[in-house]
Amino acid sequence: MYTLLSMLCLVTILSQASAKPPVTHIVDGSPAEECQFPSIVHLQFEVYDGIIECGGTLLSKNHVLTAAHCL
């Protein structure tokens, strides 16, 4: 049992060590023209240690839906 558990741990560690890093950018995307997607908004907030950027969806003239971690 101990040998099996040790082998499982070793395989898990080795598979993570050789895994590719996650892609942090858009793949095969294309730039959008201004006003091409009128319901999509870009939110940008300046904070003490940098800038936070998020996207959102325009629900009405005065309401935007965005992720909670953006606020």
Kindly estimate the percentage of residues that lie in beta strands according to DSSP: 25-35%
Helix content: 10-25%
The total count of strands amounts to 3
Number of helices: 1
The helix-strand sequence is HEEE
The biggest beta sheet is recorded as: 3 strands, antiparallel
Strand order of the largest sheet: 1-2-3
Radius of gyration: 21 Å
Q: Structural class per helix/strand content?
A: alpha+beta
Outline:
This protein is of the alpha+beta class.
List keywords for this structure.
serine-type endopeptidase activity, signal, alpha+beta, 71 residues, Peptidase_S1_PA, 1 helix, 3-stranded antiparallel sheet, 3 strands, Peptidase_S1_PA_chymotrypsin, 23% helix, 32% strand
Structure, described:
- With 71 residues, the protein is of the alpha+beta class.
- The chain has one domain.
- Helix content is 23%, strand content 32%.
- It is built from 1 helix and 3 strands.
- The chain has one helix spanning 2-17; strands at 40-47, 50-60, 63-66.
- Strands 1-2-3 form a 3-stranded antiparallel sheet, with no helix packed on it.
- The longest helix has 16 residues, at 2-17.
- The termini are far apart.
